[in-house]
Structure formats: C-alpha cells, structure tokens
Amino acid sequence: MRRHAYICSVGYRPDGTLEGPDITSQTMRTLENIKALVEAAGGTLKDVAKVTLCITDRADFAAMNAVFWRYFPEDPPHRATVIVGLATEGLKVEIDAVAYLGR
Fold first, then answer.
1. Terminal CA-to-CA distance of the chain, rounded, Å?
2. C-alpha triplet 80, 15, 26: angle, nearest 5°
3. 39 vs 13: CA distance, rounded Å
4. Does residue 74 contact residue 45 with C-beta atoms inside 8 Å?
5. What does the alpha-carbon distance between residue 89 and residue 77 come to, in Å, rounded to a whole number?
6. Cβ neighbours of residue 6 under 8 Å, at least 6 residues apart?
7. Residue 91 reports pLDDT greater than 80
8. CA distance 59 to 54
C-alpha cells in the first residue's frame, strides 16, 4: 500500500534554535529535518517526489541550489523555487516536500 507524507520545515535545530544566519546552513538544517521526518515514516529522500523551496533573497539562490543538489544528486524531485517574505525574522528558507512511501 502506498502512503504519502507532506512535510514542511525550516532551519530550526531539534532544540528549537535557528541554525546559523546564512542560507547554506539553514538549507542544510532544513533538508536534514526533512530527511529525518521521511526516514521516521519509513522512507528515504529518494521517495520525495516534489519540493517547493521558499527563499527570501534572490541572491541566495546559487548557495541554496548547491546544498539542494548534495541531498538530491540523482533523480531529483520536481521542484519550484519562489522568492517570498517569511513570517519569522531571520529565516532564509522554508521547504515543503511531498513523499510517496512504499513505492
């Protein structure tokens, strides 16, 4: 039976503090959070079918993209990247993901 998981995360550490002030560290922490949640549901990042990346500054795109490709080096999920204002001061990136588990 196939299940799906919808996950949304930002760059907070498990202790509730924000990971670094820069896009690179926040993107890494956000993707680590997503990875942990997908794995807790019995999947892997290979099960992620779609992501939406929200960043606050167009100038951060290349740095965010470099981190993204480290987590999805082959057969990456479909994705959209948008430039937005995030609700919490200091956040540089928010990522939502849809994973299909049990393929």
1. 8
2. 30
3. 17
4. no
5. 28
6. 96, 97, 98
7. yes
8. 13
SS (H, E, C) 1-12: CCEEEEEEEECE
**In this structure, what DSSP letter does residue 18 have?**
B
Cβ burial of 82 (10 Å; 0-12, 13-18, 19+) is exposed
Domains annotated on the chain, with CATH: 3-74 (3.30.1330.40)
Question: For residues 1, 10, 59 and 81, what is the CA-based torsion angle, rounded to 10 degrees?
Answer: 20
Taking the C-alpha atoms of residue 85 and residue 80, their distance in angstroms, rounded to an integer, is 16
Residue 95 near residue 53, CB atoms below 8 Å: yes
- Provide the token pair at 52: 């939406």
* Chain segment 2-50, per-residue pLDDT in tens: 788 899 999 999 999 999 999 999 999 999 999 999 999 999 999 999 9
